[in-house]
Write a structure and sequence with these properties.
Layout (H helix, E strand, L loop, with lengths): L7 H15 L16 H10 L16 E2 L4 E3 L9 H9 L5 E4 L6 E4 L12 H5 L5 E3 L12 E6 L8 E7 L2 E7 L12 H4 L14 E2 L2 E2 L2 H18 L4 E6 L4 H14 L4 E5 L19 H8 L4 E2 H10 L4 E6 L12 E6 L4 H5 L2 E4 L8 E4 L5 E4 L12 H11 L9 H11 L15 E2 L8
Parallel strand pairs: 11-12, 11-14, 12-13, 14-15, 15-16
Antiparallel strand pairs: 1-2, 2-5, 3-4, 6-7, 6-19, 7-8, 9-10, 9-16, 17-18
Length: about 450
């Protein structure tokens, strides 16, 4: 059998089908969020690029239809492809969308008595080939060709969905799924898509000493002095708190600091509390790197409950907190409290020294998901204010404490982790990620 796909007759049929598709389509391209990513735009320039022959009025349908808490529908733009319906039925396993009526009056709508509120509703925006379904979070905020895409991993839970961070003007504008057949396929949950918002909210942007702004050198010197004093006085009362939201590189550098320079035996692991889950993608563990933290911390790693108990018993009187420790209660009664944090959380206001940490979207590093897969993060935006990667702060603290070991970049730390952790042996750091500007769909070449 010989199949011909580019004969004049076949190409003419394609043009005819495209003309029918465009017959009632509104000319919304200048204001449409899908402009630059629209498949209909692309096909028009590839296969037709002719003026419309329809001199009559187009069929009018409803605009700005509120389908659910995340989605707005423009029924005039819908080309009735049913992709969104199949995503709801087959991916989310909830029949939230249907087609109503027939002929040129057919339209997409919600099923009777339902709203498009399933946990995977924003995937319908991804599969929509035109701008019919738009995300309320991204709607009218940025043009597609202004965005730069960087490969990364979702920090929302232990599944570790592969994503692209779309950023512009040093701000994250949206997260979209990136294909990985072994982890998340083509999809991600709505909760994960919105996990970028804390990157730009209530950040600790500069070091402080006793609540007052300070330079990095002064803050590091004071932190090293306090920690050394606690170590020399009674190392058994000095503790360290790590977070399951930190990268493998940060966890390893601080674990080395605790073992070799501060002689800390009491190392605790905290993180986000357990949450909802399903058997599709979402894990109950809302931390992206619990597996990596336990692997690097080893069997002596203690829990947040142990920390709370030790604080109440007065066993720990000096504490180095990296990440967050909101779940263990107030820490303002501790004589020595050094905090490295992403946000201005309560422990920061009680800290003797507070140092700003760069977040997951601002650093190069890796997470280990619940399957034990080591997956790479790439910096998509610059660190907020004066914040620095955790491994870098650990190196500078170690130097202030007289250490001889050092790392020049995250890749060196990654290599050291792979040498120590059996599960990570053989993991590949890969090539440096260069953000790619999303190209206008109609561009050639």
């Amino acid at each position: 059998m010989e199949i011909i796909t580019n004969s004049p007759k076949v190409l003419d049929v394609r043009r005819q089908m495209l003309e029918f598709t465009l017959l009632n389509h509104p000319i919304d391209c200048p204001i449409c969020d899908k402009a630059g990513e629209c498949l209909l735009q692309k096909h028009y320039f590839d296969w037709d690029a002719r003026l419309a022959r329809n001199d009559g009025s187009k069929v009018r349908k409803a605009k700005v239809v509120d389908l659910g808490r995340h989605i707005v529908l423009d029924q005039e733009r819908c080309i009735l492809c049913t992709r969104c319906i199949r995503v709801c039925n087959e991916v989310a396993r909830q029949a939230d969308l249907v087609m109503a009526f027939r002929g040129d009056r057919q339209l997409l709508t919600t099923a009777p008595g339902k709203r498009l509120d399933n946990p995977y509703s924003l995937n319908t925006v991804d599969v929509c080939p035109v701008g019919a379904l738009t995300a309320k979070d991204f709607r009218f905020s940025m043009r597609a060709w202004e965005l730069w895409a960087t490969s990364s991993v979702c920090p929302g839970c232990a599944t570790g969905c592969n994503i692209e961070i779309h950023a512009a003007r040093n701000r994250i504008r949206r997260l979209v799924p990136r294909l990985n057949p072994a982890v998340n396929k083509y999809w991600m949950c709505d909760e994960g898509r919105l996990s970028y918002k804390p990157v730009h909210q209530s950040r600790l942007a500069a070091p402080t000493v006793a609540g007052a702004p300070a330079s990095w050198d002064a803050a590091l010197a004071e932190a090293a002095r306090l920690l050394a004093a606690a170590r020399d006085k009674s190392p058994s009362t000095l503790g360290m708190v790590l977070s399951a939201q930190m990268t493998n590189e940060d966890l390893f550098a601080f674990s080395r600091l605790a073992g070799e320079n501060l002689r800390i035996d009491r190392v605790y692991l905290t993180g986000a509390e357990q949450g909802w889950c399903d058997d599709i993608l979402v894990s109950a563990d809302k931390n992206p790197n619990t597996t990596g933290a336990r692997l690097i911390g080893g069997p002596t790693l203690r829990s947040a409950a142990d920390l709370k108990q030790d604080l109440e018993a007065g066993v720990v009187t000096a504490l180095l907190v990296i990440g967050e420790a909101n779940s263990v209660g107030p820490l303002d009664s501790l004589p020595i409290l050094v905090v490295l944090a992403w946000h201005r959380d309560p422990p920061v206001s009680a800290a003797s020294v507070a140092l700003p940490l760069a977040m997951w979207a601002e650093v190069d590093g890796s997470f280990t998901n619940r399957q034990g897969k080591v997956q790479r993060l790439h910096a998509a935006v610059a660190p907020a204010g004066q914040s620095r990667p955790g491994w870098e702060i650990a190196v500078r603290l170690a130097e202030a404490l007289g250490a001889t070991w050092t790392y020049a970049n995250a890749r060196q730390v990654f290599s050291a982790v792979c040498e120590k952790a059996t599960l990570m042996s053989g993991a590949d750091w890969g090539k440096p990620e260069i953000p790619v500007q999303l190209r206008f769909a109609n561009s050639r070449g």
